[in-house]
Specification:
mainly alpha, 271 residues
Amino acid sequence: MSDEPERKALLQKLAACDTATLRRLAALLTAQDNAADSGKSYLDYLRPVADSDVSGLKTSEKSYGNSWKLRGGVDTFHMLKRKWERLEKRVAAAIDASATSPGASPYDIFEHLAADRGAEGFIDDLRDLRRYLVLVEAEMTARDAAGVADSDRGYLDQLDAIARADIDTIEDKEKSYGNSWKRSGGIGAFMMLARKWDRIAQRVTTRIEAKDGAPAASRDNVFEHLKADRRAEGVIDDISGLRQYLLLVEAEMAARGEVEIGTARDNRTAG
């Protein structure tokens, strides 16, 4: 039996994709195995990376207070969006090898992290996004616990628990799925990040009407969407899932010896 009808249907779907999606698919098709893979060693770096996030957020709060949520859920979502777009723009471009740095293929997040050794380079963009995702979940958890519309500084009390939960979730999944998250290399790992972000953006950029006791949610208001979302697997699951994949990526690069845990800002403060 000919597979021509299926082939045509697939080609039609591809033709309907936007350019960014086609670039991602092309990168997957040309992906190669990475000999530098750490195996299971990345698991040893999960706790140090998560601890550095908690420490860094508490240090930042001393300088900047609650400024990250000062203008509400819309501005908070736009900060997340800017961080993601900055990260994707950088990883979408190829980097030529030089005498002091390896090159990087488009969308290969591992190669890009290894190639960018700047004091505040690509790794800091990745960490900033992950930490904003921690803050968003911490704020909503603190609001729910206290029954308030804004937790003030209460979100700080949730940071350690979220870090522990992320590590527990990753370790539980590792028992079932092993290293499957990085089996397709740095390009496959980035595509998993992209899918999680795309799900978050699709939901949060859509206005939701009040229904069955759940409140309405305005377009782009991440806090309202988190409160209104009653789905079995909702926005909060995509936020925590993206954050955990970002944690895995840094743990893998730390295990390879390609990055120093903690942001450049953290390391300067500690030093």
